[in-house]
């Protein structure tokens, strides 16, 4: 039996633990630095069909229909005049059991957590040292305990400390020159949009997204504002919990987003967006990195959670086949999605009236071009 240690109880860590737990050849333990799994309610995630297919392998289709939503289209709007630009049919990639899905992040985390035995997750376990020289690698924790394992899976997020430990150098993500403001809002406060779809509002150096997270009228709101920050501001993470700083971001966003939306936002949180510069490959063949620790993408293709699931699934298949490396196609795929996410970000944040007019005209043509849609979206959704 192989002992597998997973660092981090996020989406990718929990998902691969579910897969590995189905095989009696593996003994799986998750070590989480926090005192509990993050079950913050309200905030949403989007899961495209490429990840739903993989989640269905652990019975995701059994989640109650009222706890998730299946939008059919992505509606594009202009924030300047609040007029609809065009819409994109995202249901064209759906099948009977595999549909584009939006839901609360806590719903997915709870589902993944409930699929595991209660004693699999160990909390308050902050990694301080990793010894990979011994036959069975040893992981030491801040509380003085340690564990030996055959395989080590690092899944502790964008700011992974464990990744830096195995690299013997500090690996930092890159600030994406953007601030995200996320919140929840009820559908009764939303006007002039199709509540059955995802709504994407394009502004000047700003875009906002609204989508349902269940069938109970609850919506997720996120706004991405282009904003440079000084090094000292980025090093002081408490800044993003400062009410005055959050109020200043809300003030900037409210210059473009409708007042009736801003005034009805609840559970508002503000945070900087960080992305990866490159993928780090562990030197030890039995150490693996997945999730946002593997590569943190810009949020403008809504592929963060889906790619965390994809990479975790590929590692699981590799372990089953005794393959110890991600193939070159995985690296190429992540780079492709990263490139498309950055292209989306550029297109969503245009400020010159002429380039905006040209962009809107191009978008109206492209969303109806089946060949383009199959190339731009299909190469991701059909994985």
From TrEMBL:
<dbReference type="Pfam" id="PF01494">
    <property type="entry name" value="FAD_binding_3"/>
</dbReference>
<feature type="coiled-coil region">
    <location>
        <begin position="302"/>
        <end position="329"/>
    </location>
</feature>
<dbReference type="InterPro" id="IPR002938">
    <property type="entry name" value="FAD-bd"/>
</dbReference>
<keyword id="KW-0503">Monooxygenase</keyword>
<dbReference type="InterPro" id="IPR036188">
    <property type="entry name" value="FAD/NAD-bd_sf"/>
</dbReference>
<keyword id="KW-0175">Coiled coil</keyword>
<feature type="domain" description="FAD-binding">
    <location>
        <begin position="4"/>
        <end position="320"/>
    </location>
</feature>
<protein>
    <submittedName>
        <fullName>Salicylate hydroxylase</fullName>
    </submittedName>
</protein>
<keyword id="KW-0560">Oxidoreductase</keyword>
<dbReference type="InterPro" id="IPR050493">
    <property type="entry name" value="FAD-dep_Monooxygenase_BioMet"/>
</dbReference>
